Amino acid sequence: MNTMTVVLFVVGLGLLVLGAEWLVKGASRLAAALGISPLVIGLTVVAYGTSAPEMAVSVKAALAGQPDLALGNVVGSNIFNVLFILGASAIITPLVVSSQLIRLDVPIMIGVSLLTLLLAGDGSVGRLDGAILFALAVAYTVLQIRQSRKESAAVREEYGREFGPSRGATAANLAYIAAGLVLLVLGSRWLVNGAVAFAQALGVSELVIGLTIVAAGTSLPEVATSILAAVRGERDIAVGNVVGSNIFNVLAVLGLSGLVAPAGLPAPAALLRFDLLVMVAVAIACLPIFASGATIARWEGALFLFYYVAYTAYLVLASQQHDALPVFSTVMEIFVLPLTGITLAVVGWRAWRRPAA
Q1: What averages of pLDDT result for each successive group of 10 residues across the chain (357 residues)?
Q2: pTM of this prediction?
Q3: Three-state SS annotation for the chain
Q4: What is the CATH number that goes with domain 3-356?
């Protein structure tokens, strides 16, 4: 692997992040100019715009015949979004979870995660599967717009502070959108090519590269959006951005990737046996944690971060067939996972009992 490959990978990643920022800026200002409410802008334009790098990379990989990279990017990004981004954001400040997220969006996130596992269970995400997912993405967007009318004045005000004020000229906003799309296309091409070169040089699969390096890289816009929102005290936005992006990743990114892939997206056995199950487990774990007082406490954020480190460590050890892998797996299976399961059960039970008290 030569130096130019590394340079192109890093530059491609930078272009993806910058392209997503310009796309979000132009689209959100244009939406504001058209009279769309700040809450709807935050729930749709911003949440989806921050997932634009995942869309660009997965679609490019699907078209280039690299399905492992396309699938790994979606699954890895969803795991990274919850465990790393929410974990880091909650450590900065305990996060407030809106009632809509607990009642509607988190169950939808769990549902689409289970649907992905079901659709990929036959060994691939085909074009019909992709069409189903993409149609659900459209339906979810319509549902979000309708639900936004029921949000509280406090939530509307919070989103208004973040996305409402600046509108700008229509031509300038269209220019931002166009430039953002160009950067996303260029960045995705260089990042995918670099990721394949990394996989070959390091002797690991494209799936592992997609689940780790590419997933974390394409999630940088979500990192910036959620952590900045947490620092500013806009804690609804920090959580809503992650949940909305995860739903968009599965429905729109994976859906469109499955649609454009010439022969669908074959799902590796390793993904079906482990990574997809982790994605589903992470989504399910959100429900009791979010419902416990409608907050994500600092210790819960630390637990999320711990599991992301453990998940990544497992992938690296497994890819290298390291001698430490059996010991690591045993410790996780016998001690850590059962203890976490008990903790989540207790948290969920307390959350269930609280409304009745």
Answers
A1: 78 83 77 68 73 86 89 93 92 83 88 94 92 94 78 67 64 82 81 78 81 84 80 76 90 94 88 89 87 81 90 83 73 67 67 55
A2: 0.83
A3: CCHHHHHHHHHHHHHHHHHHHHHHHHHHHHHHHCCCCHHHHHHHHHHHHCCHHHHHHHHHHHHCCCHHHHHHHHHHHHHHHHHHHHHHHHHHCCEECCHHHHHHHHHHHHHHHHHHHHHHCCCEECHHHHHHHHHHHHHHHHHHHHHHCCCCHHHHHHHHHHHCCCCCCHHHHHHHHHHHHHHHHHHHHHHHHHHHHHHHHHCCCHHHHHHHHHHHHHCHHHHHHHHHHHHCCCHHHHHHHHHHHHHHHHHHHHHHHHHHCECEEECCHHHHHHHHHHHHHHHHHHHHHHHCCCEECHHHHHHHHHHHHHHHHHHHHHHHCCCCHHHHHHHHHHHHHHHHHHHHHHHHHHHHHHHHC
A4: 1.20.1420.30
